[in-house]
Amino acid sequence: MTSEGFDNKAKQEVINNLRRLLKHLRKAQLIRGQACVTSARVPIVKCLSRYGFSVDISMGTANNAAAVCLIRNQMSLAPPLRPLMLILRAILKMHNLGEPSLGGLSSYPLTWAIVAHLMQEGFKVADPARARQQPPPANALPPPRLLKTSPNGPSMDLGSLLHGFLRRFSPSNFNSSALAVSVLQGGFTSKPPAWNKSKQGKEKKPQKHLSVEDPLKPGQDAACASFKFEQMRWKQPTRCPIPKTRPGLVAHPSMSSSQSFQKS
């Protein structure tokens, strides 16, 4: 889910509409247990489907349809994205670090953090401009396919890719005060100073958080609420260190992204 936000008047209207939607979902017995409407920057319904799946429902954000198309395109170009997302989301949920309202990391910025890692491993990145022009998909996601490494292609070994992701974002390899995730700029880029001004806690001290550029809104940090990022990082030493992450290892920056970062 992208994070454009609403002004106060529009936000209250969205909350009221979501409450009406929640009432209809309960009446149709499509959800079970407790459910609520959060009043975050982008209000959402948090509920449990009758099949036991956690579901977040939002409305009114213009980029959502484009985000769905973009992520579907990205899964086609980088098949390991889908299982890696499932594993990492499960890990975050296990440690109560998957809710941005509580300082955690939501699925949208996590998606691009995984893609940034996969880019370093040789996978291609989807084009945001193409996703904006595509109609919203009417069908469900295609079924998962067997991951098999081709002779000249990047590795499809999920264990190796997961291990590499955890090491890449470990404290010894990723400086969250100096680097940001940006698939538009090769996977990683220098972090704009303005993105280091996020403050949390009673004393309002600056907090280290993961910064992830939204590929559909260049220059916007989609993970600005992740002030518990240090708790998410894998701190176990390894005998096989990877090169330290540095800006722009793969692709050339897009003009729009570069200009947005210079303005930040």
From TrEMBL:
SUPFAM superfamilies: Nucleotidyltransferase, PAP/OAS1 substrate-binding domain. Residues 157-218 form the PAP-associated domain. This is Uncharacterized protein. The keyword Magnesium applies. GO terms for molecular function: metal ion binding; mRNA binding; poly(A) RNA polymerase activity. One of its GO terms (cellular component) is TRAMP complex. Residues 9-60 form the Poly(A) RNA polymerase mitochondrial-like central palm domain. Residues 200-216 have a biased composition (Basic and acidic residues). Keywords: Magnesium, Metal-binding. The keyword Membrane does not apply. InterPro entries: MTPAP-like_central (IPR054708), NT_sf (IPR043519), PAP_assoc (IPR002058), Trf4-like (IPR045862). It holds the Pfam family MTPAP-like_central. PANTHER family: INACTIVE NON-CANONICAL POLY(A) RNA POLYMERASE PROTEIN TRF4-2-RELATED (PTHR23092:SF15), POLY(A) RNA POLYMERASE (PTHR23092). GO terms for biological process: polyadenylation-dependent ncRNA catabolic process; RNA 3'-end processing. It comes from Symbiochloris irregularis. Residues 128-153, 190-218, 238-264 are annotated as: Disordered. Transmembrane segments: none annotated. Residues 254-264 have a biased composition (Low complexity). Residues 134-145 have a biased composition (Pro residues).
